[in-house]
């Protein structure tokens, strides 16, 4: 019997790359998407190894229905892997951002993960009636899960929460032998960077943040497409599911020394000082 995995947020980017790579490695993958068009496209592009499932991490009923389909396919066997990848990124200055947008961010990136784990966790081995080795959960965090970036506060908050959630969950699921692995990418060359163009900076035109936000978005538009290929993250996900003893967390960051190692070694106050100077967030930078 082939190994099976579930990947949420599989329609594009990292999720699609994970689905494709796992299929190439012999897995059958239940790919979570929200649209029928994406389901048909994935089947056409990846082949019969992918089994698209219509699900929305903000809707527990769709997740439970998807889990029922997976359970029927597994026919009494355990699920090998659950990749919690679905997520969005909300941007804006925390002093002015609409709180409804922050609620949406947390609903998808944090509560969505909890709903997903509750739906599929039993299939990983928490259900004693299933046969086979316990599966693993791979949590898609971010470099933002360890560092906070200006104007990305809602996203950073969601990924900080995911890191803490995973650490707690890992200990709780030890009862069933289910391991949890965090992957924290930096910039990855996916369509998410195209959405930087959609951020309406002008809604903050009556604040002091327009120019600094433009500086940050310019950096995002430049560095995003230069990030790691999504296939790089997909390979790490496969390793996290299949390795005998994977690490608890993997930081997959381009230009690792500059963007990860050095900032984590320097005093945090100094890193803050360098960041606000580069972006234009010092008092003397105000118009």
TrEMBL record:
EC number annotated for this UniProt entry: 1.1.-.-
GO molecular function: oxidoreductase activity
Enzyme class: oxidoreductase
UniProt key word Oxidoreductase: yes
Family matches, as Pfam families: adh_short (PF00106)
All residue ranges annotated as the Ketoreductase domain in the record: 5-191
InterPro entries: KR_dom, NAD(P)-bd_dom_sf, Sc_DH/Rdtase_CS, SDR_fam
Family, as annotated: Belongs to the short-chain dehydrogenases/reductases (SDR) family.
Entry protein name: SDR family oxidoreductase
UniProt organism field: Hyphobacterium marinum
């Amino acid at each position: 019997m082939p190994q099976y995995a579930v990947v949420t947020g599989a329609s594009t980017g990292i999720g699609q790359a994970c689905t494709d790579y796992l299929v190439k490695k012999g897995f059958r993958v239940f790919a979570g998407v929200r649209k029928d068009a994406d389901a048909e496209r994935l089947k056409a592009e990846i082949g019969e190894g992918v089994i698209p499932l219509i699900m929305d991490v903000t809707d527990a009923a769709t997740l439970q229905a998807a889990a029922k389909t997976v359970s029927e396919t597994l026919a009494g066997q355990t699920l090998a892997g659950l990749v919690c990848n679905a997520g969005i990124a909300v941007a804006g200055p925390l002093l002015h951002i609409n709180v409804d947008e922050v609620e949406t961010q947390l609903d998808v990136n944090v509560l969505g993960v909890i709903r997903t784990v509750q739906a599929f966790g039993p299939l990983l081995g928490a259900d004693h009636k299933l046969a086979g080795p316990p599966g693993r959960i791979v949590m898609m965090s971010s470099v933002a899960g360890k560092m906070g970036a200006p104007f990305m506060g809602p996203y950073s908050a969601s990924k900080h929460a995911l890191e803490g959630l995973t650490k707690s969950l890992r200990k709780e699921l030890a009862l069933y032998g289910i391991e949890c692995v965090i992957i924290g990418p930096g910039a990855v060359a996916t369509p998410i960077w195209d959405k930087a163009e959609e951020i309406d900076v002008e809604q903050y035109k009556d604040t002091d943040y327009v120019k600094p936000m433009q500086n940050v978005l310019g950096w995002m538009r430049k560095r995003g497409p230069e990030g790691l290929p999504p296939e790089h993250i997909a390979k790490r996900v496969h390793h996290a599911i299949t390795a005998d003893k994977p690490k608890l967390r993997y930081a997959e960051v381009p230009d690792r020394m500059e963007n990860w190692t050095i900032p984590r070694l320097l005093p945090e106050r100094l890193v803050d000082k360098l960041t606000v100077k580069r972006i234009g967030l010092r008092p003397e930078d105000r118009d």
